[in-house]
Amino acid sequence: QVFLVEKTGRRSLFLAGLMGMLISAVAMTVGLVLLSEFAWMSYVSMVAIFLFVIFFEVGPGPIPWFIVAELFSQGPRPAAIAVAGFCNWTCNFIVGMCFQYIADLCGPYVFAIFAALLLVFFLFAYFKVPETKGKSFEEIAAVFRRKKLPAKAMTELEDLRGSEEA
């Protein structure tokens, strides 16, 4: 896993995992909806479940831990990881406790909810999450500052380089 992350990059692997999970969730929904008409749809659903887990384990399972650790400097990093872990386990608990009720309510369309959420997560990651592979904390922070500040604003790193040359 670590070699794959270092070779392909965190963001691209995360996006590929989210998209694979999205397609798998749609396939599970189609498989469950058409199960009463076509018996072989059970195989489609099973393959979709296995692919969903595989894509999760390649992208959204481990990659957020890499990204969270790289987005924060040494001081706030432990707190950020603690908040990320708390959010992760809280969402896991909510899904685990509510899934049966949602499945009873939605029937075969239960995975359409996951597909919709995965689409939102994919779009958010595509537009807001930077690639952190091979970048220092300062470079990553500069990417976020460039999105907020006008194009003419200098980053701290450029500020330091300018003062060293003088």
From TrEMBL:
Keyword Membrane: yes
Leader peptide range in chain numbering: none
A cellular component annotation (GO) from this entry: brush border
Gene3D superfamilies registered for this protein in UniProt: MFS general substrate transporter like domains
Sequence ranges assigned to domain Major facilitator superfamily (MFS) profile in this UniProt record: 1-133
Gene Ontology molecular function: D-glucose transmembrane transporter activity
Places the protein is found: Membrane
Major subcellular location class: membrane
Residues annotated as transmembrane: 12-34, 40-58, 79-103, 109-127
Record's keyword annotation contains Magnesium: no
Topology within the bilayer: Multi-pass membrane protein
Protein name: GTR2 protein
Source organism per UniProt: Stercorarius parasiticus (Parasitic jaeger)
